[in-house]
Each structure stands twice: as structure tokens, then as C-alpha cells.
Design goal:
Elements (H helix, E strand, L loop, with lengths): L2 E5 L4 H10 L4 E6 L7 E3 L5 H11 L3 E4 L6 H6 L1 H22 L3 E6 L9 E2 L10 H16 L3 E6 L1 E3 L2 H4 L3 H10 L4 E5 L3 E2 L1 E3 H13 L4 E4 L6 E2 H11 L7 E5 L17 E2 L2 H5 L8 H12 L10 H4 L1
Parallel strand pairs: 1-2, 1-4, 2-3, 4-5, 5-7, 6-15, 7-12, 8-11, 9-14
Antiparallel strand pairs: 10-13
This protein binds NADP nicotinamide-adenine-dinucleotide phosphate (NAP).
The site of NADP nicotinamide-adenine-dinucleotide phosphate (NAP) has 27 residues, from α1, β5 and β8.
Amino acid sequence: MPKIYIAGCGGMLGEAFYLQFRDDYELKCSDINVNDSWLSYMDFRNYKAYKDDTAKFQPKWLFHLGAHTDLEYCELHPDDAYETNTKSVEYAVTIANDLGIPILYISTAGIFNGKKTVYDESDEPDPIGHYAKSKYLGEKYVQGYANNYLICRAGWMMGGGPRKDKKFIQKLMKQIKNGARELFIVNDKLGTPTYTHSFAANTKLLIEKQMRGLFNMVCDGFTSRMEVASELISLIGLKGKIKTNPVSSEYFANDYFVRRPESEQLINKRLNEHGINIMRDWRASLRDYLRDYYNGYLIDSLNETDLQ
Ligand SMILES: NC(=O)c1ccc[n+]([C@@H]2O[C@H](COP(=O)([O-])OP(=O)(O)OC[C@H]3O[C@@H](n4cnc5c(N)ncnc54)[C@H](OP(=O)(O)O)[C@@H]3O)[C@@H](O)[C@H]2O)c1
């Protein structure tokens, strides 16, 4: 089986890559957060450790997945953000070039300024905070210096479940589990959810089809934070039992002080052009995600009114 080295594989996306690729490829998965038995420790800010570990494995592909994804952390710790999200990408490109193999880099819809409503691969990024800048610089480095590369851009990530999901869906599910029957949801943000398993499966297809270059890769259908929250409530059977209060982003200014683009909606133009878009509708993906990862999660927190 062809070998793939996956760096920064311990997070919500890494888990889906591991599960989607493991039957057809020999994998070596590393992270600084060794939270599964199939992970080993490797800090990709350490060039020598990165180079030695990959050289020993002799992969046919290098997937550089990991990053600091907390926007507020990145804003408060810019040095670590650029070292983790940009400098390590430079290391990865050098390593892949030296080994003569292609590199996969994961970018984000968050690199746009949000002034347009929908972005395709020809739109010019204009990142807002340090997280977005550090990710865009990584993308530019790959495009400028990697001899052989794939860049896939994700949107609002859904995946990993209660154990690994650091983002919107788990934040809502956790509040509901803790008894909240009233949620405050921003009504001024548009985006495209991205289910980690579909993203990993579509990446696998790109590799099998020997595609290269930059691809947007998000679920079908444009939406908003408010609509995602309403759909989630309906899917978990609590429609009418949980109230959603629309608020502007200002409401969360203390906790989420990094400005987010008004729109991070991507369209998979290049996947469509090549006839290789297997990303599914965001509602169907959210349903699959909740079914696969949250079965029984809320049981202890439901009361009689919820169940009526
Ligand atoms: N989450 C999103 O909404 C989103 C959207 C678009 C694109 N992306 C991109 O998708 C990729 C995967 O992100 P994710 O959502 O899976 O985030 P995640 O769950 O935070 O996973 C990232 C992993 O990278 C690890 N990591 C951080 N610094 C490292 C280092 N120096 N060496 C090795 N591993 C390191 C993290 O460890 P710790 O847990 O210890 O930090 C974490 O396990 C990232 O490139 C991200 O920028 C994410």
C-alpha cells in the first residue's frame, strides 16, 4: 500500500483522514496531542524532528494537516501562530521537495475579507486576523515553492464529536447537554459547513485522480450560523423546546474578539469543473454527523418537557 505521512493528525479533521485513508494506504500519523493509539508524537515546529520522522517512513505523500485553529489564541500569541501555521508549512514544503513527493495543505475559507457573498478559487484572499494571515501565508508558500501540491480549502468544520470537535456544533451541543434551553446565535455570519469525512473522502478522490493545485472543498448549499443552529435543534428532536435568540457578533465581543468575515461562503468551482465534487448537502452532512458522533450524548440531560 502507498505510504502517507500525516502531520498534525490528532484533531477533528485528522481523525476523519485516518479513518478514510487507513484501508487503502499505510499511514504514519503524528501530532503534539497524542490522544489516540494510532498517533505518535511529533512537533512540526521542530524541523529536524519533522525531517527525520518523515525520512524514516519514506512516504509517497506528505499531508500537513495540523494548525492552531483557535482565532483568539492566534491573535494573542502571534509568534506561535506564525511558527505553527506558516513556518511549519515552509518546513513541510522543503521536506516534500527533498523527498520528491507531493504535499497536501489544508487552507480555510477564513482567508477572505467577507465583502463578497461567495468565493471561488479565482478570488483574491484578504485575511483579517493573525489566524487567517498565518494560514494564507502557508497557502502562498505552498503555491510558490512546492514542486508538487494539492491545497484544499475547508469551511465551517464539523467533525470529531464530543472528544475532538472544537467548533460551532460541539459548542451548541455542549450548551444543550448542560441544560440550556435558550441559545444566543449570531445572525450576521454566512458560511459553508464542511463535514470532515466528506472532505477526507473528496481529497482521497483527488489523489486517486492525480489532481493537483487549489480546490475549494465545502458542503453543498450556502447557509448561516442561525440556520445551522435551527437545523441542529430540529435534527436532535428539540424543535420548539429550545429557543434561539438572534444576536449580532457584538454580543460575543468579549469571548470572540477577533473579527470574522461577514461571509465565508465557498463554492467548489474547480471540483465541479472536473466532475469530482462528491461533497454533500450541508443538512444531510449535519444529520450524518449527529447520527455518527452524538448518538446518546444528550440522554442524561433531557427532562420530561423535552421528551413530550
Ligand atoms: N476547524 C475549522 O473550522 C477549520 C476550517 C478550515 C480549515 N481548517 C484547517 O484544517 C486543518 C485541521 O484543523 P482541525 O479543524 O482538525 O483542527 P484541530 O482539531 O485543532 O486539529 C489540529 C491538530 O494540530 C495539532 N497541532 C497544533 N500544533 C502542532 C504542532 N506544532 N505539531 C503537531 N501538531 C500540532 C493540534 O494539537 P492541539 O490540540 O494540541 O493544538 C491538533 O491536534 C488545519 O490546517 C486548519 O487550519 C480548519
